[in-house]
Amino acid sequence: MTDRVDELGRILKRMLTENQPITARAVVGSSEVLFHHASDVTRHPRRQKLLKEFAARQTLILEAIESSSRKSKSALEKALARKQQQIDELIAQRDRTPS
After folding, report:
1. Model pTM score
2. From CA 82, how far away is CA 78, in angstroms rounded?
3. Mean pLDDT per 10-residue segment, the chain (99 residues)
4. CA distance 81 to 67
5. How does DSSP assign the chain, residue by residue?
6. Which residues of 49-65 are buried (b: 16+ CB within 10 A; e: fewer)?
C-alpha cells in the first residue's frame, strides 16, 4: 500500500507541475495501470488525504496566479495612464512652443 501511496505522490507532483487538474479521475488517467477507478484513490484514507492535499495546493497556486494577474493588470493600467499623461503634457508643450 505504501508503494501505491508513494507512486500516487509522484503522479500528483507531476500533475501539479504540468498544471493538470487534480481529481481522482484525472489521477486514473495519468497513472496508466496503477489505478483503474477513481475509487481506487478515494477509498483509501492515505491516498484520499494525499489527493486532497495536492488539490488544495493546486487551488492555492491558481488563486495566487489569478491574484497576481489582477495586480499586474492594475499596475499596467496605472503605468499606461501615467505615460498617456506624459504624452499629453509633451503634446501640449509642443503646441505652445512657437516654431
Report:
1. 0.70
2. 6
3. 86 94 95 91 95 93 81 80 90 81
4. 21
5. -HHHHHHHHHHHHHHHHTT----HHHHHHHSTTS--SHHHHHSSHHHHHHHHHHHHHHHHHHHHHHHHHHHHHHHHHHHHHHHHHHHHHHHHHHHHS--
6. ebbeebbeebeeeeeee
